[in-house]
UniProtKB/TrEMBL annotation:
Top-level taxon of the source organism: Eukaryota
InterPro entries: Zinc_finger, Znf_C2H2_sf, Znf_C2H2_type
Keywords on record: Metal-binding, Nucleus, Repeat, Zinc, Zinc-finger
Principal cellular location given in the protein's record: nucleus
Protein name per UniProt: C2H2-type domain-containing protein
Keyword Zinc in annotation: yes
Record-annotated C2H2-type domain positions: 8-36, 37-64, 65-92, 93-120, 121-149, 182-210
GO terms for biological process, alphabetical: regulation of DNA-templated transcription
Keyword Zinc-finger tagged: yes
Subcellular location(s) of the protein: Nucleus
GO cellular component: nucleus
Length: 222
């Protein structure tokens, strides 16, 4: 268990939180507090700027940064630099214990905690303790808020992390010839399966749409 206690109290239910952002997210998800950041392409409203920034990626398939080692496409320069470390093993921050390298300082410090026995970050809902705050946030989203934001665009299954989603995508085999033929009518995001589109509508957009409201792009026969 973590050694500290919460100092931020919810005015609606008197539950206490150790982080102000945790209280804000709690009030938005549990008590319907207004969300400040609205997506310009749909009805989605985010509790924080980071949530909105993450959400905006669903509106584009552009990946302008391509890894010269494996051909993987990345959407941002930061994710590209962080990905390169996997192949080169060279980064600005190197773990003194296992020598794993990182370009992102926050990721580096999170990694260092994995080598320590202490678990200083506790879940405000159930008391489960973790070594890094991001693991607490991931736990809360998946277990207590059922917020599995990484959606398979083929079958619609939802996953807690991008790593879990990548592992799942391997089950579908080679998808290079499968077209993105299903288009979201609200934000125009594209999907390879109707189930992926349905899950997207349920997770991203607050308004429930039926299949008759979706539009499908016709593709020419080969």
């Amino acid at each position: 268990m973590a050694p500290w206690r919460g100092t931020h109290t919810c005015p609606d239910c008197n539950k206490t939180f150790t982080q102000k952002i945790s209280l804000s997210v709690h009030r938005m998800f549990k008590h319907g507090a207004p969300r400040r950041y609205r997506c310009p392409h749909g009805t989605y409203q985010a509790p924080t700027k980071e949530y909105l920034k993450r959400h905006m990626r669903v509106h584009t398939n552009e990946r302008q940064y391509v890894c010269p080692h494996c051909g993987k496409g990345l959407k941002t320069a930061e994710s590209y630099r962080n990905h390169l470390v996997i192949h080169t093993g060279e980064g600005r921050f190197v773990c003194p214990v296992c020598h794993k390298a990182y370009n992102h300082k926050g990721a580096y410090h999170d990694h260092l905690r994995t080598h320590r026995p202490r678990r200083d970050y506790a879940c405000d809902y159930c008391g489960a303790a973790f070594k890094a705050y991001k693991h607490v946030a991931r736990h809360i989203r998946a277990v207590h808020l059922n917020d599995k934001r990484f959606v398979c665009d083929v079958c619609g299954s939802r996953h807690m992390t991008s790593f879990n989603l990548k592992g799942h995508m391997k089950k579908h085999g080679d998808l290079s010839s499968v077209p993105y033929s299903h288009v979201c009518p609200a934000c125009h995001a594209e999907f390879r399966g109707s189930e992926g589109l349905t899950a997207h509508m349920r997770v991203v957009h607050t308004t429930v749409h039926t299949h008759t409201q979706t539009q499908t792009r016709t593709t020419p026969h080969q």
